[in-house]
Write a structure and sequence with these properties.
CATH topology: Glutaredoxin
CATH architecture: 3-Layer(aba) Sandwich
CATH superfamily: Glutaredoxin
Structural class: alpha/beta
Mean pLDDT: 93
Number of domains: 1
Strand order of the largest sheet: 5-4-3-8-9
Order of helices and strands: EEEHHEHEEEEEH
Radius of gyration: 14 Å
Number of strands: 9
Helix content: 25-40%
């Protein structure tokens, strides 16, 4: 089932500072939420740094950005400090938002089926409606795809 055209599910999750962020807080701006498996791992670091390096372009296009994983606040704080990330990271250990977005489930890792976060990105419009979904993201070139789609949809 496609999430495109559906409202972002209701949620309340702490950011890396412990401040609650809700779906209502995202209204009024385009929002990019990217789900990633784990702080400070190679693919996740590359993805976070790509979003960091394109942060000004995303902001100029009118978008805010949030990363989301099951990591705890301390892990997020360390990851942000080490990689100099200019955006917030949400902590979702109970999969409150990850599950309804389809960003948690069965995946193949090192040839074995495991349950975990499926690297995915969601573009939400200022009214809280999901306008684009990238399931099973391949990190290389992904941020450019997001920027291109944002430019088309936000006109």
């Amino acid at each position: 089932m496609s999430l495109i055209g559906s409202p972002l599910p209701a949620f309340s999750l702490p950011d890396d500072q412990g401040t609650p962020v809700t779906n209502q807080d995202l209204l009024g701006k385009w929002t990019v939420i990217y789900a990633y498996p784990k702080d400070s791992t190679p693919g996740c670091t590359t993805e976070a740094c790509d979003f960091r390096d394109n942060f000004a372009r995303l902001k100029q296009a009118g978008a805010q950005i949030y990363g989301i994983s099951r990591d705890n606040l301390k892990s997020h704080q360390n990851f942000i400090a080490k990689q100099e990330l200019p955006f917030r990271l949400l902590s979702d250990p109970e999969k409150e938002l990850l599950t309804p977005l389809g960003a948690f489930g069965k995946k193949i890792m090192y040839g074995k089926e495991v349950e975990g976060i499926i690297r995915s990105t969601f573009l939400i419009d200022p009214k809280g409606i999901i306008r684009a979904v990238w399931p099973k993201v391949s990190v290389k070139g992904h941020v450019v795809e997001v920027l291109t789609t944002l430019a088309k949809l936000a006109q």
